[in-house]
Every structure is written in structure tokens, then in C-alpha cells.
Predict the structure.
Amino acid sequence: MKKYISLIFTSLFLIVVGVCSAQVNQMDFFRSTTLRPGFHIKFWDFEEGAPFDRYIVGSAPVTYSMALSSRLSVDFVSSYFGTALEPVTGKAFEYYNMADTYGRASLILGDNLALLTLGASIPTGETEFEGNDVALAGIAANRALNNPVSSFGSGQNFSVGLAFARPLGDWVLGFGAGYSLRGEFDVLTQAGSGAASSSTFNPGEEFNLTIGAEREFDFMNNDAKFSVDVIYTNYSEDDIPDDFLGTPFLYESGDKIVLSGQVILPLGLFDPLILSAVNRIRLDNSIDSGNAVGDALLEENGGEFEFRATGITSLGKALGLRYAYRAQIYGDNGSDSEGANIHGFGGGFIMKLSRHFTFDPMFMYYTGSVNTGKDTDISLTGMELTGGFTFRF
């Protein structure tokens, strides 16, 4: 069982020191009022020999977006979720709670000169865990599993972003910068005697720069579109308390470079066919501590490559079919774990009953493996159901 501990502990460490749950897209601007209650359920079944048989997580996110004027909009997203882990022996254990709630205001500056965004989170989620909750939170944060809830809570956070877009010949060039200030939050640790105590984590700040380009072109006498983005993110040090791993230390996530591209093609049966790829390059983490265990933890990060293909077939003005393929190929970290090779196939439909209401369920089946140590891995299969009801006013 020892070789599987990294799957839980490494992932849990990531939520504590630097991984926040997904927020609404920083650069979107909403020009109408939209309410979207959604659903997202995911099952993972693990091979025989793993310490657990199945992991289940489901969430009910609600997103509300409203344009206050032609220049100013606000949006909010909140979610209630539940998760359960079935061990090989013994009873299953569960956890239910709210995730953090996020809000954002977006303002157009000048004559469409730039877009300014201000965001904040309300810490409705939980950061203090004990007992079986630790394992649940750790698996939820595993990046390769891409769960609908990756963080049970991360305290109070604030963010600001500024984006510009300008035409240059046949291209549109975009530039953006963002800053995130993450507040302190408490976590629950377990002392050697078994008594629980609360410790305060002081997360570092984040700064990112984005450069993007987009161009429309002719494809088989129809309009097609190509876009590419480069995002650089810098992380400052996280201050880890002295009762986490037994000694105080400073942890700094390695800087991240994200290269992404997308092409949208009108291709006969698939109109459109959307092909996208993302390559995340993570530099080495830095841990400043005199403790040998701490110094050896998460020294090196593996790269992450993802590819997606989505096709849409129109069956009229009110109905469309969707087909999807996804691939996740992740490299090992310095502990020879966290690598993954997972492929997904699925489909769904988009039903537009009126200009005010849309329903878009989607089902995916996954198969692959995740690495848990040197020359060891766990084979797994998964199923995912996602979608929502969109109301426009």
C-alpha cells in the first residue's frame, strides 16, 4: 500500500500550497443576464491491488452573470458537492460541503480599449480536515483525474486582471496581465498523540502574463479560425507552519508556462470541428527547509499535455449532436509519480428550446493509468456526466 500513498499525499499537498478550484474565465464579458444551474458527476474505478476500488465526486455548480450596463458586468459561481471513496476493505467514507464562492466584476475601458477585471472569493469551502477527509481531499486535487471539484476550500482570495486586443493586418493580437493575492487560511493537522490542532497557512501571490493571437481564414469556402496563446505564471513563496511535516519551511511552486492552440473548422458533418491542444511546462519547485523530508518533497514537476477534439452536427435550429475525444499525457514528478496516460471518448447533445433556454448534457468514458511510483502505476476507468440548463433574460 505504501507505493499508493503519493497519489493521496502529493495531491493533498498541492491543494494546501498552491492549487485553487476553477474560477470563471478571467477575460469573458457578459452582455446579457444568464443563470446556469449545472451538474457534474464523475466516477473512477481502480484496478485490483489498489487500496481503494472507486472514487465518486459530484457537484451542482450555479453560475449567474449580469450586465449592469454596456461597459460593466458582474458574475458569480458557487457549488455544492459531495464525494465518496470506497476502500477495498471496510466501509466507504463520504464528504459533503460547499466549495468556495467566486465573484467578479468586468469593466470595458475607453472605446473598447481594454478590459479590467476584479475578482474575489468568499471562503464558503472547508480547509480543516481530519481522518478520512484527508484522503478524499487528496484524490480530489490530483491533476490527472481532472475532477469537477479539485479544492474543498482555499480561504479568501483577490484577483485583478487587465487585457488588451488590437488588430494587426489579418491577425488580432491580445495581451493580458493578472495578479492574485491569496489570504491566510487554517488547516487541521493531526499530532502524534492523535489530538487535532489547527495551523495557519500563508499562501504566496501569483502573477501571470498572457500573449495571444487569432486569425480567421478561408477553409473549403467557409470561415475558419485559428488562435494561439502563451501564458506565463510566477508563484511567490508559501509559508508552511512548523507543525506540517514537523518543521517550518517556505515552499515556492515552480513557474508555469502554458502553450495552447485551437483551430475551428467547418468540416461537412462536423460544423464546426474544434481541435485544441495545451502543453503545460512546470519548472522545479523550491523548498527552503533544514528538514530532509521537506527538502526532498516535490522537487521536480512533470510536463502536462492535453488534446481535445469536439465535433458538432446540427440537426436543425433547435438540436445539435456533440462528439468528443480527450487525451491527457502527464510526465512524472521528482518522486516518479503523478504521471498519467488517460483517454476519453463521449458525446451529447445541445437542445435550444428557445432563445431563452438551452440544455446541453454530455457523457464521457475514460480509460488509462496513473503513476504512483517508480515503475508502478494504477490502471483505471472512469465515467463522467456533465451539463446544465442555461436561462438567458
About this structure: Confidence is low (pLDDT under 50) at residues 1-27, 292-296. The chain has one domain: 2-392. The CA atoms of residues 99 and 125 lie 4 Å apart.
